[in-house]
Amino acid sequence: MHLLSVCLAYEVQPAQSSSVLGTQHAVHTLPVACTMQCWKGPKCSPTASQILLSSSHAPEAIGSLQEHYNNLCVENLQKINPFLLRILQGVDEEIKKGLDRITLNIAGNNRSIPGERVTGEDFWILSTILERTPYINGLDVRYNLLKDVGAYCTAKLLQKQYTLIYLNLMFNDIGPKGGELIAKALHKNTTLKYLRMTGNKIENKGGMCFASMLQINSSLEKLDLGDCDLGMQSVIAFATVLTQNQTIKAITLNRPILYSEQEESTVHLGHMLKENHCLIELHMCKHDIRNHGLEQLCDALYRNQSLRYLDVSCNKITRDGMVFLADVLKSNTTLEVIDLSFNRIETAGAKNLSETLASHNRSLKALSVVSNSIDGGGLVALSQSMKTNPTLSHIYIWGNKFDEATCVAYSDLIQTGRLNPDNTDVESFVVDGRVYLAEVSNGLKNHYYWTPSYGEAYSHSSNAGFALVPVGQQL
């Protein structure tokens, strides 16, 4: 039987025999104290009984994390993960220096530190250590193999560790049951402020559990559920809950699984924006938003006075939708970052925006129109708006149709100092007396899914959206 199944069955079955990793154990619903006294199973890889034993110990100060990890692995006949051992050694050195706000970076896609990816069984040992470690306030275990077993251990950790404020679990193959366990653990957690569940297929069931959690939890400020296969029901549930929740400042609901053509999710999120006065950052990538959906959002933005970062990239918005956005930007004074990348606003849409930016709006700081089928006329119009608008400092245009006039216009903006080279995704060069534009790795959120193997992972030029509108802890 799978380890998670045994863990979950503990609370609902009076007694059962289970086989974990080839070893037979009897698991009974005894009081914790009784379980601690009576259980004397053989030492092996972690079983449900061992996890329950581990979680029942009172927190106590521990010495070297590396030594403690090594001892726990030996005691439980668990294979030592050299990658984890190296990371914990580094943490021990930081603790000796007197640091007490440490982020434990165990990202499985870190190519500069090769090693085995962390499994659910590895994480059981690690979570046992972290329960008694007050120095750790951030934990990054993205791109590993925690699965639902690791989610169970994460839930136990959230119930016992009171210094953790940042937790990154993105792409760990956590399913609906694991999502449910983590969401329920957050009902009582009062310290975690930023949780990334990106890419874990918790589906509609897990999404509903997180929506329910937001009715109770009053500490979480930033929640990322992008690419989690959320259903229409859970997206609507989030929209409903956020009309009342006063603590969430940033939420990511990218790429839900929607089967309707009626844009119900966009309509409900629009209604939410009319009532919510705390949300600062909203990501709605791949929501199948069309012009009617954008109209609903714009209608809400006439009343909303808190939202500063709106991400509607990778949708089906066309030039007609820009009429609504350009109109609301004439009166909205809070929006600072708008991401329209990978839509189809074309030249007419770009000109609508440029007219508003040139003569009315003085609050927008960053605009991305990457890959929007805009030709030279629209791109030049946007460059002209920057000459009269002193506030607009970041613009991203790569993936459109550059002509010579476009290349000259943006080259002039950069050379005159009006456009900082770090604040755009193009740079100019000259060949045979003609100006061209080349792509530069700058953007609003270039390192959302990955981080570079060298250089600064969270530089402002590559992640301008999060730098301009800082919400929570961007680690």
Q: Percent of residues in beta strands? A: 5-15%
Number of strands: 15
The largest sheet, given as strand count, sense and whether it forms a barrel, is:
11 strands, parallel
Unreliable parts: 1-61
Helix-residue proportion: 25-40%
Mean pLDDT: 86
**Largest beta sheet: strand ordering:** 3-4-5-6-7-8-9-10-11-12-13
- Overall geometry: globular
Class derived from helix and strand content: alpha/beta
- Output the radius of gyration: 25 Å
N/C terminus separation: 37 Å
How many H/I helices? 17
Quick recap of the structure?
The protein is built from 17 helices and 15 strands. The chain is α/β, with parallel strands linked by helices and 475 residues long.
SSE blueprint and pairings:
Elements: H1 3-9, E1 15-20, E2 23-28, H2 32-38, H3 48-56, H4 65-75, H5 82-96, E3 102-105, H6 120-130, E4 136-140, H7 147-160, E5 166-168, H8 176-185, E6 194-196, H9 203-213, E7 222-224, H10 232-241, E8 250-252, H11 264-275, E9 281-283, H12 291-301, E10 309-311, H13 319-328, E11 337-339, H14 346-359, E12 366-368, H15 376-388, E13 394-396, H16 404-415, E14 426-431, E15 434-439, H17 464-468
Parallel strand pairs: 3-4, 4-5, 5-6, 6-7, 7-8, 8-9, 9-10, 10-11, 11-12, 12-13
Antiparallel strand pairs: 1-2, 14-15
Helix pairs in contact: 1-3, 2-3, 4-5, 6-7, 7-8, 8-9, 9-10, 10-11, 11-12, 12-13, 13-14, 14-15, 15-16
